[in-house]
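Sequence of Alanine racemase (Roseivirga spongicola).
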Amino acid sequence: MNIDQLAKVTHAEVSAHQKSETEILTLCYDSRQATHLPNELFVALKGATQDGHDYIPELLRNGSKFFLVEKDIPVASGGTFIKVKSCLLALQQIASYKRNQFEGRVIGITGSNGKTIVKEWLTSVLTTSHAVLASPKSFNSQLGVPLSVWPISNKYDLAIFEAGISKPNEMEPLQEILSPDIGIFTNIGPAHEENFINLEQKVKEKLKLFKRAKTLIYDKDDQLVSTLIDKHFNGDKIGWSRKSNGSIFAQKASNGLTVKWGDKTHYFNTSFEDEASIQNLTHVIVCSLFLGIEDNSIQERIDRIKPVNMRLELKRGIEGNFVIDDTYNNDLAGLNKALNFMEQQRSHEQKTLILSDFIQSKVTLEDFAKLNDLLISKGVDQLIGVGPQLSEASSCFTIKSRFFESTEALINSDILDQLNNQLVLIKGSRKFALERVSLLLTEKVHKTRLEVNLDAVRHNLHFYKSLLKSSTKVMAVIKAMAYGSGSTEIAKLLEYNKIDYLAVAYADEGVALRKDGIDTPIMVMNPSEDDVYAMARNNLEPEVHGVSQLKHYYDAFKSLGRTLPVHLVINTGMNRLGFNEGQIKQLKEVLSLMPDLEVKSIFSHLAASDEAEHEGFSLTQIESFKQIATDITSILANQPLLHILNSGGITRFAEHQLDMVRLGIGLHGVEVNERLQSQLMRPAQLKTIISQTREVKAGESIGYGRKGKAVQDMTIAVMAIGYADGYLRVFGNGNAYVSINQQKVKTIGNVCMDMTMIDITGLSVKEGDEVTVFGNSPTVSELARWANTIPYEILTNVSGRVQRVFYAE
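Predicted 3D structure, token representation.
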């Protein structure tokens, strides 16, 4: 769309309008992800803690030209501004307009669970015969849906979008945008139920998506959904059932799925056995059959469907590489998101993209030329293209490139051996099976993994920021490998999200962060006098708790011609490190002799901010700290930052946030205020696999010390995790459970060094199944309670030999 069209559709005013013929090709709503290309429109959205308008001056300086705004911006600034009442509403209006120009069919998917899975699997099947546009990842919100629709054009035959709501009246605008011809209602469940009167209201709200749909596919065995569809949907109803009470009968058979539709029976092989996957797969098959896809084409795509995570994963690779794995699907919108994720990582200067053909859409040479510009703007140094589409377009790329007709040709070449100390993004369509390349490049470790959801860490950061004044700074405490998660990767995320300060325990942690490219100010909380020169060379700022220590650091920094930046810690009742009240007079005398000293901050530690019974003591600490800090600052030339609140203190004593707060365990989804816990996400999930299952006869013993006893014939499984991985021995003998295929499974017998046995009698569990040790169920807090400890210990106890995988949805 050009500027004139955008203005007309959104009823906007345009200022400094000099290029009405300029066509907008890409949208950007996060200033950190702007490409500054001449056809990009920045959308200045307002959030709970951020306002996109604040970043416009910086964007203009970097070359961005076009902006969708809600405020008047001075024309003299040099940009073109499309002013609307609401940027979000304008995006929705633009998306609705573009959808109405689309001549193909739109498939809309909603429900409580499975929306993204059904969309991805259905897209995989339908690309055998159609050019398909699908929403990237789980873009199904008020913002995600219009962003998903933006690329729509008549070069696609089909478009598949998902729509999600969390409260009443949210579906109407999504329906106006999508207006699907075909609908799929996946299922109904308890997600977001707190915002609805009951499940009936939630189903009715979701059904609004299909107001103008001609056809609706659904699980007829869900009585509530089926009844309400009969009442409120007037189009063709395609309800499938596991019982013989409808025209479509779907039944799980041995190693497969039978779908009987009218007089014809269709049989499909599948390895899926769990109910959720079978339901999702049946939706996909029924929709594909309805659209006339042949059984053999459906089967070919089912064979390629794997229960992989549809997310960007960052893994340590061989030869010093880091690998970003996004080998599930490939489209231009998803590639842009992957490149943004790649841009966040600063561990390597050299960046390589391994990319397959875009088989889901018709891509022109002009598209590839624009892709070349995008890769240059994102700092990609090398492109390795896989597939005939990319090979034919090789002349469109000016960056260093090599092209291969197939994945096999790439694997058999020598180019993968040449990759070292690089950041490698692998982005491919399922057809090309680029996961084989990922396996070749990824460091080989045992199957126990700590998965860290970077989106969840970001969500938690913004939640706590929403409780603070806009002027209050945030120091993120990432000592002990960011509470076991991984310091560098978490630090990169926080720096990308403009954190003010980082705090580590020891100088070597700070040095490692500096070597990995972290530029954010870093406070060292427990420095050694031996580390003073390392701190000076790496711009680290020591915490100081004693006069002799202060003098030593001051003299050492001065000998290097540097000004000492310090953080003074005051003991107000923690009785750990810090200046006591009686030492403040001497401290002031020493400070007066150091006029060039730079006191960055003065702070103290609350001893019991997470315990309501000690609220009075905490308030006494806060008042004592304020008095002491005021006394010290009275003799300083500069005004240092004052801070005393930690994660628990932010929610309990927000009125005392002072100049800065320290955020640690809260980033990891642990909140002392139970009322607020539901507003946080749990970033870390510890997972392993089932190594073996076995039958045990009644009377036999299990494990070391024969502590496990089979009181009857039973089936047990062995998990690939033990106390050397951080799974405490106290969790053995039924004192903890793990989750497998949404089933709670208790331990039996003692926890071994590398393995743990669990009781799977009567449950659906097999070798190779994934096990959740902690995450959403059970939670870190539950494990802490079972072990009579705190969540900090559970997180930090995860062994260094456990692979860390960082991902973004």
